[in-house]
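Entry: Acetyl-coenzyme A synthetase
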Amino acid sequence: MSTPPSVYPVPEALAAQAAIGRGDYERLYDESVRDPDAFWARAAQRLQWMQVPTQIRDVSFALEDFRIRWYGDGELNASVNCLDRHLHTRGDKTAILWEGDDPATPPRHVSYRELHARVCRLANALRSLGVRKGDRVTIYLPMIVESAVAMLACARVGAVHTVVFGGFSPASIADRVADCGSKLIITADEGLRGGRRIPLKANVDAALKLPGTNSVETVLVVRHTGGAVGMQMPRDRWYDAVVDDQPDTCEPERMNAEDPLFILYTSGSTGKPKGVLHTTGGYLVFASYTHEAVFDLREDDVYWCTADVGWVTGHSYIVYGPLANGATSLMFEGVPNYPSVSRFWEVVDRHKVSIFYTAPTAIRALMRDGDAPVKSSSRASLRILGTVGEPINPEAWRWYHGVVGDGRCPVVDTWWQTETGGILIAPLPGAIDAKPGSATRPFFGVQPAIVDAQGTVLEGEAEGNLVILDSWPGQMRTVYGDHQRFIDTYFSAYPGSYFTGDGCRRDADGDYWITGRVDDVINVSGHRIGTAEVESALVSHPKVAEAAVVGFPHDIKGQGIYAYVTLVAGEEGTDALLKELVAHVRGEIGPIATPDHLQWAPGLPKTRSGKIMRRILRKIAENAPDQLGDTTTLADPSVVESLLRERRGAA
Ligand code: ATP
Ligand code: MG
């Protein structure tokens, strides 16, 4: 077997055509850190301001003098930037291309003009219901056009939206409503995913019976499936009844650049969700700039990000970034494997998608089913592929590049967080050579550094904790209602810098490799081993579909390696295979990474956004089922039960 390449150079044609080509990156990056005021003042010109900012940045990460302000005297409205300013040049262009759960449902093309009118009608309705600048509005909707309409209508009247993923339970809704004291909830009768109905309105009813939720005065209900729901008057109102007769223009609120745009609760992989607060000006500059540069966006692109609007990826890269850029953004209601595992590629062909952005978890799941379901489609329209959410195993990266992209399309591995508002590390496709498993280089203005446990900044080739030395415009400004938690969580571990919580390696070329969360790094006999590395070694075995690795207390080594392995469809977990996999990891990484325990896992506990919850797997490995902690954000809690049963059987 020949060794696959470790570097995938920028395709020559793209290097020549891309807005940011070879050489441009170094020049612009250099300028962005040498003279950030000039750089970001120029970047701000991409937006339409009601008052153009003259103060660009006012930042200090020092604890005694802490502040983060961008474009502090600027005024703008996010919805105007995403809608009104495109009306002259792109009024008839499709803003949102909606594809339903069932392929038989006709897709919808919502033009910028129509989207503008719909947003204005809802914005007027919100005002008529007493929603004012600064009020919080909870959005609990499926992936339908109204979810973008709702976000932008809130932005128009200056209300702070907080989107709760449509798969969350009543308890999760109640927690989030109580935390931010929202006044109004926008929901739908039901959601639809993979042919199943999700009782959204009933979940809201149950949530509003829980303590702490009586701030809610109104529930607006979109008729989506037409399923029967109970309406409690006067609290509950049908969306169409309140919205349809409203005027289709609406005076936008003047917002200061530092006024809040939204609160979004983090996905909860590591504990109690935090209300991450983003503001208006810096966020929108950063979301739109990164979206244009990282995906090499062009006017006629059809851009599809498969995330849910309930995650930050949906905020920045389905709604705000693409619409601020006047792009066509595809919104998909369904799931990758319904009605068949070819669905993604059928949608790509149907709508001639040119930019496709998804998560490693989806790529690995589709890879399990082999190449045939992909190869039955053309995918000739694809130009750029992206990934986000977790470290991508090189094996999965190569499959994505080689099979999905037919080896033609650059893959941009984008590292970022809810907290960062937009992409911080990624290979700009026309400028930076890609490496499977590496997010490569920082975006303009982003200054990553690798520090050791004492906080010493390591130079050159190094591995340790990833911090960011200075602010960027899309940075979160606070944890809603708990500014001290914001400072304690992100700025105390390494004073003077933002701590990401992720481990990272920088190679000899200066490219960055995220090794996983710092909590997930395992210390075996004094050697730091990234869980991502061991997982990638396991996934590179042809019979392994997915793997999750955690540390557990070990008498001699300090920590041992515990691996959970999901096999490819049709393979069986025999003792012989177990030995083969252990030997495979030894061969790939070395004896130090030898798994001490390997457990077959038919499924892995994941958050609703598809991330493996290693916190829970650690407890299972430790055989401490009573310490599992909060499991309400799990996609399928029954997975935990079956892993625990297996664990007990093996012990
Ligand atoms: P919580 O903070 O509540 O525990 P979370 O960290 O999963 O949840 P997100 O903000 O959605 O919530 O995820 C950001 C994290 O996802 C990053 O800190 C990193 O660990 C991981 N991540 C995202 N993109 C990448 C990527 N391209 N490569 C490696 N890791 C990534
Ligand atoms: Mg996080």
